Amino acid sequence: MKNNIGRKMLVIGLLFLFLGASATVGVSANMSWLDNFDSYANDQFLDDFSTEDGGWGGWGLNPAAGAYVRDDQVLSTPYAVEIMDPSDLVHEYEGYTTGNWTYKCMQYIPTDFSGMTYFIMMSEYLDAGDGTWIVQVHFDSDLNVVEQETSGEQLPLIKGEWVEIRCEIDLTDDWLQIYYGGELLAEKPWSVDYSGASGGPMNIACVDLWSNYATVVYYDDFSLLPFGTTELTCDAGGPYVGEVDEVISFTGTAYGGTEPYTWAWDFGDGETANVQNPTHAYAAAGEFTVTLTVTDAESTVATDTATATITEPQEEPIIVVDSISGGIGVKAVIKNIGTGDATGVAWEIALDGKLIFLGKSKTGTVDIPAGGSVTVKSFVIGFGATNINVTAADDAMTKTGKVLLFFVTGVA
After folding, report:
1. For 312-360, how does the pLDDT look when each residue is reduced to its tens digit (9 = 90+)?
2. Where a domain ends, among 311, 341, 369?
3. The predicted structure's pLDDT at residue 89
4. Is residue 234, in this structure, part of any structural domain at all?
5. Is residue 236 part of a domain?
6. Both 17 and 160 in a single domain?
7. Residue 219, pLDDT score
8. Which residues have C-beta within 8 Å of that of residue 267, sequence separation ≥ 6?
9. What are phi and psi of 19, to 5 degrees?
10. Does residue 216 sit within a domain?
């Protein structure tokens, strides 16, 4: 029978003790990966595998398969990720080809959940949307079960509370254990895929959170750490982006060691903070190295760094319809009250009177410098009362008036 991972680690540890060696089993803690979604913005859409999106993206490079960061249901405040149709959210990993690893995340399934949603891990992932599926666990509201599809092992589905999903992965001896809510769901060789075929690579390639048309579920507090991590490790979050004088929220996490922890941040611009999740605004543009130092109760120290990319405030145009007047035809003044120039501003003058024979609608585009204005006109022939609606970019104004042949009067 396959020994469990904990027993193997104990044997290796005793061997090192016998030899009088001082060594660490496994790979460097620098390979640790953590993400609790708290360094993103609320309602941020994770879709393109960019650093701004923390490396998350849609399955098969499809941005529409991304997912939103939300504050509706969270474990570690302020945010979690929301998985619902059409989400098929992927995070890829590199360099995890040997050693023993623990992959964990927390999942919240609402009590009114409907459908079947999936938690998937792959040993090979191709951007075209193919690869080798190793962990394929579905959560079924009809049967109220959680099932690993390799051999059909099941546990009861838990709703209305945060539940841990944990995968103990041994890439050295080819073994996998999947836990749900602290109970063993399934175990098998890592190289055997969800269909039972063997020969998969010894590699952790990605995680995939697939909605499969089900209603919303939430995930929080992801980690990929060396198995049995007891040494103190920390994560400075990020990468962080913002503008000069914009308040940015920083998120620190720590694992292992002996609690309580003390927190020390150096934002790279001479400013510091000593809380777990500080805020900070930079006075100048540039790329800054943010350093988090965590000290535990035994005075053990761990550090991690992240980048903060700060840019000058963007000059943005703001387009408004300032006025509508009559005379020969209709005139409208469009202003740019923003700080940036506007090019190709689309506008329209539309009249809805029943006896408008010419000039019911006129459209065009204009360029308006910052602080400037333009007057647009529409020649009209008709009779009677009418509404006059003018739109420019996202702004609009409506007035009423009367048309007498080609004169427009009484605009108010």
Report:
1. 988 889 999 999 999 999 999 999 999 889 999 999 999 999 999 999 9
2. 311
3. 98
4. no
5. no
6. yes
7. 98
8. 250, 273, 280, 282, 288, 290, 308
9. -80, -5
10. yes
Lowest mean pLDDT among 13-27, 30-44, 285-299: 13-27
The pLDDT of residue 23 is above 90: no
What distance in Å separates the CA atoms of residue 89 and residue 76, rounded to the nearest whole number?
20
Regarding whether 44 and 178 lie in a shared domain, the answer is yes
Cβ burial of 397 (10 Å; 0-12, 13-18, 19+) is: middle
The pLDDT tens digits for 205-262 are 999 999 999 999 999 999 998 887 777 888 898 889 999 999 999 999 888 888 899 9
Name the residue among 78, 80, 76 with its Cα closest to residue 67. 80
Q: What is the 3-state secondary structure (H, E, C) of 118-155?
A: EEEEEEEEECCCEEEEEEEEEEECCCCEEEECCCCEEE
324, 355: one domain: yes
The boundaries of the domain holding residue 403 are 319-409
The CATH number covering residue 10 comes to 2.60.120.560
Instruction: Say if residue 152 is in the same domain as residue 292.
Output: no
**In the block, residue with structure tokens 């500080």:** 278
> The sheet that has 330-336: what strands, in order across it?
319-325, 330-336, 373-378
**Which CATH number fits the domain that encloses residue 339?**
2.60.40.10
pLDDT at 1 over 70: no
| Angstrom distances, CA of residue 412 to CA of 51, 367, 378, 397 | 52, 27, 17, 11
**pLDDT 10s digits, 109-166:** 999 999 999 999 999 999 888 899 999 999 999 999 999 998 899 999 999 999 999 9
Same domain assignment for residues 50 and 179: yes
Is-contact 39 304, C-beta < 8 A?
no
* C-alpha to C-alpha distance for 401 and 198, rounded to whole angstroms: 78
Q: pLDDT tens for residues 39-94?
A: 889 999 999 999 889 999 999 999 999 999 999 999 888 899 999 999 999 999 99
Domain count, the chain: 3
Say how far apart CA 270 and CA 290 lie, in whole Å. 10
40 and 101 part of one domain: yes
Same domain, 341 and 306: no
